[in-house]
């Protein structure tokens, strides 16, 4: 009789936990990805294309979302990508950071998101006014339609 009562209480307790367990497993999800606009651009340094640079757009002001980024090709061209998949970035105002990593001999290093820059022997080649989120002087407005952004850096 005592065992039956314990089993009944344990069963009720288990049934009470099921909704919480399911909510923890299935209820928590990432916020929806905001609508993105195609964003292309060019980075130049002293008038020349800047290849292998990481370009990062950080929302500022009332712009919602998270940072979007791209890597420049040999022509200095980049295409922004949202970290959760879609190409582009939500329309709005952004602080822009450009990072150009080089090795000890000044040779450009191609950014690899799987390897920390310090492990590659990388050093930042651009001044903080371009490469630091706290000090950047760069900003951009992404329109509510496809945008082509020009970032002209001077050393």
Strand portion = 25-35%
Are there runs of 5+ residues with pLDDT below 50, and where?
A: 1-23
Tell me the helix content: 10-25%
What is the radius of gyration? Answer: 24 Å
Architecture per CATH nomenclature, i.e. the level-2 architecture of the largest domain: Sandwich
Order of helices and strands: HEEEEEEEEHEE
What structural class do you assign from the helix and strand content? alpha+beta
Number of strands: 10
Annotated CATH topology of the largest domain: Immunoglobulin-like
CATH class of the largest domain: Mainly Beta
Average residue-wise pLDDT:
83
How many domains? The number is: 2
What separation lies between the terminal Cα atoms? 85 Å
Count of DSSP helices?
2
Explained architecture:
- With 155 residues, the chain is of the alpha+beta class.
- The protein has 2 domains: 1-30; 39-153, Immunoglobulin-like.
- The chain is 19% helix and 30% strand.
- It has 2 helices and 10 strands.
- It has helices at 2-27, 128-131, and strands at 39-45, 48-49, 54-59, 68-71, 77-79, 92-99, 101-102, 123-124, 138-142, 147-153.
- The longest helix has 26 residues, at 2-27.
- The chain is globular, with a radius of gyration of 24 Å.
What are its keywords?
155 residues, alpha+beta, Immunoglobulin-like, 2 domains, four-stranded mixed beta sheet, four-stranded antiparallel beta sheet, 30% strand
In short:
Helices cover 19% and strands 30% of the residues.
What is the strand and helix layout of this fold?
Blueprint lengths: L1 H26 L11 E7 L2 E2 L4 E6 L8 E4 L5 E3 L12 E8 L1 E2 L20 E2 L3 H4 L6 E5 L4 E7 L2
